[in-house]
Specification:
The chain is of the alpha/beta class. Among the domains are: 198 residues, Nucleotidyltransferase, domain 5; 97 residues, RRM (RNA recognition motif) domain (Alpha-Beta Plaits, 2-Layer Sandwich), CATH 3.30.70.330; 78 residues, Alpha-Beta Plaits (2-Layer Sandwich), CATH 3.30.70.330. The protein contains 27 helices and 32 strands. Strands 9, 10, 11, 12, 13 and 15 form a 6-stranded mixed beta sheet that branches. A 4-stranded parallel beta sheet has the order 16-19-4-32, sandwiched between helices. α12 packs across α13 and α19 crosses α27.
């Protein structure tokens, strides 16, 4: 959250999940600007980076997304001030990319009995065997088939897979012939624009093994373009006006052009194939081929310069050239195959990226002829240490501040910190953060709160409460009531997970569990006291101790800053397309985004959508207009949004995850859990106060990020 609004990002619906690479990109550019090969993040933009007063990262150790929602009401300040929230994909060692891989984070007892940590901040030179490329492929040269992604690797990296539920309707290239080391390579790259549907292809390039361009075609998207992303795609509205080519045309042409044993090469090729809605069985992904630690990836621009001596994606040009990018990825794969892993590891790419030698390297590369391949001297000792912010900042002369488990002494090296209570850390932060351009402030719950049974109990409680909030009971009905008409009526409020008849009562009731919070709330608000299936019914949520504060929680969720200007609309017929909805809702004033949630397993659209407006008042006005609207014979219902994208995705994951904790063991620990939870609630409230004080002390134009890294 910036104290001045200079950060823009796509934050709606499925864009709310980011990787550690993406977070690292953001922090690196915010802290370093264009120094040390830092570039604008790929997923958002920081405007006027040079005017940033500083970057502050607050780490809440032992806390995860589970804690945020369990203690949602206690995080009063955090949820009201920090407008942008993301689910961070799990990683065992992300903090190492901030502190440095050499950090030794073993707790040591201090005189005060508090937890502290000593570490050596700067990693030492490693043996070549430690290079991730050598660890993955070994040192010997291999044929190209050794570098194609396995089916498991494709699944793990979100490649479209034949028969996968999310790839229904995708075109299969039918290139099923057995691959050999002499199979032909083809470079592929696409440029995309953001449309109402998501990322859609606007340009496709295909090059052969000789670098000859076989295809370089503009494509007209099916849906309305929301953002041309001209700075990256090079595509403008004017360019697409005369274009007649559509995605099916490109799919047909690619299918005809590729021989049956073709191997496609690209950089993060999964995104291109997903946008093309095509499935190809044999691929080489250069972002994975040039392996790095912790799952991080080199950018294509950097690899082209460091390995091939080529300048691509130059800022003087308007957008990327997909033919140039496809050719660069192809040549990188050819270089890797021809030279072998050992020669690639000897390039010391990490060193080139993160030390002062990068500047020397850039000068040398500029003097070399186009296409010249740069290689380091074989007798030069390798330096394969993983980059960290502390390294980069030290080189630029900035003094980073690290408070909590470890600190920096005057020389810039980490030292143990004896003052590690949260209160002491806050006091030091209030004094020292204004003097530093990059600060990492670490607060901790304490190791006593990460016991497995306590976490399992906490998880079970949150799962149980979410289930209760998504569940409603309706009735009583007549003995011979029509269940189908009940399901139809309640289905108009939103997607139903399950519906069962309760027969233990004098008259039958139905128990309905919805998939989104808004649907359950809409059912309570609109159908309580209504006549359904010939009976005047009561609609209510389960009455349990955990649900006593449900109304308060619903109200707070509704007022959450993430839900400002967002409304929920239900009752959509599944036959309605995005184009239909865009057409209908386009008359609403200040509409910014239309988002159709998908089933995370089947990929199908739900019978509801979310509308985001530029102004809150426009959302209020839209609610009055939409309720009762008819769209192709379907009557719409709407209300204020309760769950932002990352929350409903998380709810889905919570509901579908199987708790490993045995029931008897769990209940044996419940008493201990209740005592811990009460104390934990107070501790979380205190942490929220600490964040409030620290945030208020920051200068304007400070980028502040709060991390919930969990225990792993």
């Amino acid at each position: 959250q910036e104290k001045s609004s200079r950060l823009s990002a796509a934050l709606f619906g499925e864009d709310c999940e980011i990787t550690h690479d993406q977070l690292y990109e953001l922090l690196k550019y915010a802290a370093l600007g264009r120094c040390h090969n830092a570039t604008q993040p790929s997923w958002c933009r920081i405007y006027h980076q040079s005017q940033l007063a500083g970057v502050v990262v607050i780490v809440l150790h032992e806390m995860s997304q589970l804690h945020f929602y369990k203690f949602y009401l206690q995080f009063k300040h955090l949820r009201k001030v920090f407008r942008h929230r993301f689910t961070l994909t799990p990683s065992t060692n992300f903090l190492a990319s901030l502190y440095g891989e050499g950090a030794n984070l073993k707790p040591q007892n201090t005189a005060q009995g508090l937890t502290s940590t000593s570490s050596e901040c700067f990693p030492k030179s490693s043996d070549l065997q430690c290079d991730p490329i050598i660890q993955k492929y070994g040192e010997k040269k291999r044929g190209l088939t050794s570098y194609t992604l396995t089916l498991e690797e494709q699944k793990r990296n979100d490649y479209p897979i034949k028969g996968s539920p999310g790839c229904k309707g995708y075109i299969y290239t039918e290139c099923d012939q057995q691959r050999t080391d002499s199979s032909p390579l083809f470079g592929l790259d696409c440029e995309m624009c953001l449309t109402a549907k998501g990322n859609e292809v606007t340009r496709v390039s295909l090059v052969d093994a000789q670098g000859q361009c076989l295809l370089n075609e503009l494509v007209k998207p099916e849906s309305t373009v929301v953002n041309y992303r001209t700075r990256f795609s090079g595509i403008t509205k004017k360019m697409l006006l005369p274009v007649k080519t559509r995605l099916p045309d490109i799919q047909t042409r690619l299918k005809k052009m590729l021989p049956h044993d073709a191997v496609l090469v690209g950089h993060s090729l999964n995104a291109d194939l997903q946008a093309l809605e095509m499935i190809h069985p044999s691929v080489i992904d250069t972002s994975l081929l040039f392996a790095r630690n912790e799952g991080r990836r080199f950018k294509l621009k950097f690899l082209a310069k460091a390995v091939l001596g080529k300048e691509i994606q130059c800022e003087q040009k308007l957008g990327h050239d997909p033919a140039e990018d496809a050719r660069a990825a192809l040549e990188l794969a050819q270089f890797f195959i021809e030279q072998g892993p050992a020669k690639v590891a000897e390039l010391n790419l990490e060193m080139l990226l993160t030390t002062e030698k990068l500047a020397e390297f850039e000068n040398k590369a500029a003097l070399q002829p186009q296409g010249c391949r740069v290689q380091k001297q074989l007798n030069e000792p390798p330096h394969l240490s993983k980059p960290c912010f502390l390294d980069c900042l030290q080189v630029t002369g900035q003094k980073p501040l690290l408070l909590g488990r470890q600190e920096l002494d005057s020389s810039g090296l980490c030292q143990s910190n004896l003052s590690t209570s949260n209160k002491q850390i806050l006091q030091r932060a209030l004094e020292d953060v204004p003097l530093s351009t990059f600060s990492i402030i670490q607060f901790s719950l304490g190791p006593e709160y990460i016991a497995s049974h306590l976490l399992a109990g906490l998880c079970e409680k949150v799962r149980s409460k979410l289930t209760d909030m998504l569940t409603i009971y309706a009735g009583p009905f007549e003995e011979s009531f029509c269940l189908k008409s009940v399901k139809k009526e309640f289905g108009r409020c939103g997607p139903i997970q399950s519906l069962t008849v309760v027969t233990e009562t004098y008259q039958p009731y139905v128990c309905i569990q919805y998939e989104v919070l808004e649907a359950a709330q809409l059912a309570v608000e609109s159908l309580n006291g209504a006549e359904v299936a010939g009976s005047c019914i009561k609609v209510q949520r389960p009455v349990t101790a955990a649900m006593l504060d449900c109304d308060v929680l619903i109200k707070e969720l509704e007022l959450d800053v993430e839900n400002e200007g967002v409304i929920y609309v239900a009752g959509l017929k599944k036959s309605l397309t995005e184009t239909d909805l865009q057409e209908k809702f386009s008359q609403l004033k200040d509409l910014e985004t239309l988002f159709l949630p998908k089933d995370l397993q089947s990929g199908k659209h739900r019978n509801c959508c979310f509308l985001k407006f530029q102004k809150s008042q426009s959302a209020v006005d839209a609610l009055e207009v939409i309720n009762g609207w008819m769209v192709k014979g379907s009557k719409l219902r709407s209300r204020n949004a309760l769950a932002s994208g990352h929350l409903w995705r998380w709810i889905w994951q919570m509901k579908h995850s199987n708790g490993k904790q045995g029931g008897n063991v769990l209940y044996e620990k419940m008493e201990q859990l209740c005592d811990s939870e009460q104390y934990l609630r107070k501790k979380v409230k205190k942490l929220d106060q600490h964040i409030k004080k620290l945030y208020r002390s920051l200068q304007n134009n400070t980028l502040c990020v709060v991390l919930f890294p969990g225990v792993n």
